[in-house]
């Protein structure tokens, strides 16, 4: 028996139930881990709210990220041993390999022996943010030395990961945040510049910071009305990677700006990276090197205990954090 978080219906954070259930042995291509920590993601809140790409089959587990110690291995697993300290590159099913709880069976090929300098909390906070940011910025946008990248929703874990990845390749990250409340924290987290959108004209400020050229890369999970000024802030031939839809308002298509600047607008999903073994191998190599050297260092906003999982998701939904919310087990 293990304590596992499940939902029996869609709803607010109160539908998260901590239950004692039997966890089966891992399948042939899986490993079982005793979870020490798991990271929270907005996808899990959306899943709980019935606003996600995947439908739940009740009762349902949930959770994408975890770090812990291997307690059992499947029959076909040869490169991971019982007792290994590991973390999980999030798989492409939020429920099947749900990580919220004391024990989780997870795909062996997505299980990583992370650098020893990482704590379990840091390891549980690493893979979703860094794979997401690396895939967009390095693999697809080819971000490189001298580039400017404009990062919205900048206080999210993915936003902070984007700053660190940009710096590691010699690019300059410009963060966008609505109010002054998080400005200093964003600078301390690695943004070269911060634009407070409620007080400043974003387009004018970006053009001033880039000597009139604009940002070659935009990394945005919001959409909505800000989409138009984002394109106006871009350099000719630039690329905008849209990886979310946080705004509830319609997203306009700025036809003449796109035409005049010959822009590329691309929808981007984390799944693009995880589903391609060759690309995933490149992501793992880059991220492991960065984690080991300290060039990539997860920012932890707050930790909660397992029996506080409802409070943890409410804190995430309140949008007050800078960095990753993690639950310890």
UniProtKB/TrEMBL annotation:
<dbReference type="InterPro" id="IPR013154">
    <property type="entry name" value="ADH-like_N"/>
</dbReference>
<feature type="domain" description="Enoyl reductase (ER)">
    <location>
        <begin position="11"/>
        <end position="327"/>
    </location>
</feature>
<dbReference type="Pfam" id="PF00107">
    <property type="entry name" value="ADH_zinc_N"/>
</dbReference>
<dbReference type="Pfam" id="PF08240">
    <property type="entry name" value="ADH_N"/>
</dbReference>
<dbReference type="InterPro" id="IPR013149">
    <property type="entry name" value="ADH-like_C"/>
</dbReference>
<keyword id="KW-0521">NADP</keyword>
<dbReference type="InterPro" id="IPR011032">
    <property type="entry name" value="GroES-like_sf"/>
</dbReference>
<dbReference type="GO" id="GO:0070402">
    <property type="term" value="F:NADPH binding"/>
</dbReference>
<dbReference type="InterPro" id="IPR036291">
    <property type="entry name" value="NAD(P)-bd_dom_sf"/>
</dbReference>
<keyword id="KW-0560">Oxidoreductase</keyword>
<dbReference type="InterPro" id="IPR020843">
    <property type="entry name" value="ER"/>
</dbReference>
<protein>
    <submittedName>
        <fullName>NADPH:quinone reductase</fullName>
    </submittedName>
</protein>
<dbReference type="GO" id="GO:0016651">
    <property type="term" value="F:oxidoreductase activity, acting on NAD(P)H"/>
</dbReference>
């Amino acid at each position: 028996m293990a304590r596992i978080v499940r939902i029996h219906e869609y709803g607010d954070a109160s539908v998260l139930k901590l239950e004692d259930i039997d966890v089966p042995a891992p399948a042939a291509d899986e490993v079982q881990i005793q979870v020490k920590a798991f990271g929270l993601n907005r996808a899990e809140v959306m899943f709980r709210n019935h606003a996600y790409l995947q439908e739940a089959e009740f009762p349902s587990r949930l959770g994408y990220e975890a770090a812990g110690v291997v307690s059992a291995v499947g029959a076909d697993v040869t490169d991971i041993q019982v007792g290994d300290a590991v973390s999980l590159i999030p798989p492409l099913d939020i429920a099947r390999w749900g990580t919220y709880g004391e024990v989780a069976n997870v795909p062996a090929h997505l299980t990583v022996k992370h650098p020893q300098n990482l704590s379990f909390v840091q390891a549980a906070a690493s893979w979703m943010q860094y794979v997401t940011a690396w895939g967009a910025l390095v693999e697809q946008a080819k971000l490189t030395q001298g580039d400017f990248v404009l990062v919205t929703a900048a206080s999210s874990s993915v936003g902070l990961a984007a700053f660190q990845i940009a710096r590691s390749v010699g690019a300059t990250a410009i963060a966008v945040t609505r109010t002054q409340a998080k400005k200093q924290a964003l600078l301390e987290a690695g943004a070269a510049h911060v634009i407070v959108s409620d007080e400043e004209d974003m387009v004018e400020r970006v053009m001033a910071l880039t000597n009139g050229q604009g940002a070659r890369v935009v990394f945005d999970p919001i959409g909505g009305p800000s989409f138009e000024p984002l394109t106006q802030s871009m350099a000719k031939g630039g690329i905008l990677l849209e990886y979310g839809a946080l705004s509830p308002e319609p997203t306009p298509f700025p036809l003449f700006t796109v035409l005049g600047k010959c822009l590329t607008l691309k929808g981007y999903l984390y799944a693009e990276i995880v589903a391609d073994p060759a690309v995933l191998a490149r992501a793992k190599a880059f991220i492991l090197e960065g984690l080991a050297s300290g060039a990539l260092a997860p920012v932890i906003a707050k930790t909660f205990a397992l029996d506080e999982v409802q409070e943890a998701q409410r804190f995430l939904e309140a949008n007050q954090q800078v960095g990753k919310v993690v639950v310890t087990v």
